[in-house]
Design goal:
Number of helices: 11
Strand content: under 5%
Helix content: over 70%
Largest sheet: none
Oligomer: single chain
Shape: elongated
Number of domains: 1
Radius of gyration: 21 Å
Mean pLDDT: 90
Structural class: mainly alpha
Number of strands: 0
């Protein structure tokens, strides 16, 4: 190892994954260091997914109201350009928003699928990013880091739901998009809002945990680990900005 890497200290050995998941919050260095000894990801993924799926029925009424509000705004802004037949179809669609497969069942299917895709993408990115430093990470350890860090998304989901329940609508959060109008008119304001939505308290926490994970599993220095993670986060944030600007993401 060169002078920018560090020797791993003796680690806490976790016999069970749930205490390790809890320590990702309380003692992250110990929790991530043990992934080098025993990489594991499935239990972390299942627990975090189950918690987020349990939040769905509580959040759905507010998501429905927000969807109807967005459609009302779109109709109001574009009424002169919408034909009567299309307008009638849109109004019918608005009324039926809370019914059918899309609303009743799809969220319970989409949540685990999207979370699995997410950790696979993160693991791939970490593996490639760390590999470019000349250090080998391996896909299973990378997947373990990504899965353990889902605790951030889980807590973020709980906090987000609490904020929604307190305020009574979904236009709340922990990111800087709250500084912008709900429906920006200028293209550059929409672009800035989309980027601001990526500057989130829980994103900062996740970057920290990914950095700890990479450092503890590979022995790479904290500085170099952060560099890898930050570049990957920036790529992800720019993709999220593009999707947010086009209206496919928050």
């Amino acid at each position: 190892m060169d002078n920018e890497t560090q020797e791993l200290t003796e680690t806490t050995e976790y016999a069970q994954p749930l205490p390790q998941l809890l320590d990702a919050i309380l003692e992250p260095e110990a929790a991530y260091a043990d992934l080098k000894r025993k990489p594991r990801w499935l239990v972390f993924f299942l627990v975090c997914t189950a918690v987020l799926m349990a939040l769905i029925p509580l959040a759905q009424p507010y998501n429905l109201a927000a969807g109807q509000e967005r459609m009302d705004h779109y109709i109001s802004e574009n009424r002169s350009q919408i034909g009567e037949e299309q307008l009638a179809q849109m109004e019918q669609m608005r009324e039926n928003m809370g019914e059918g497969f899309m609303f009743t069942y799809l969220p319970y299917i989409a949540t685990p699928v999207l979370m699995l895709i997410f950790i696979l993408l993160v693991a791939t990115g970490l593996n490639i990013g760390v590999g470019m430093t000349g250090i080998k990470l391996g896909f299973k350890p990378a997947l373990s880091i990504a899965s353990l860090t889902l605790i951030v998304s889980t807590i973020g989901g709980i906090v987000g739901l609490v904020l929604v329940l307190v305020k009574g609508d979904v236009n709340v959060g922990t990111n800087l998009s709250l500084l912008f109008p709900l429906y920006p008119e200028e293209w550059y304001t929409r672009l800035l809002k989309a980027f601001a939505s990526q500057l989130d308290l829980f994103a900062v926490w996740a970057v920290y945990l990914y950095t700890v994970g990479v450092s503890k599993v590979t022995g790479l220095s904290t500085k170099r680990s952060f560099r890898v993670v930050f570049i990957l986060w920036l790529i992800w944030a720019l993709l999220g900005t593009a999707l947010g600007y086009l209206g496919f993401a928050g």
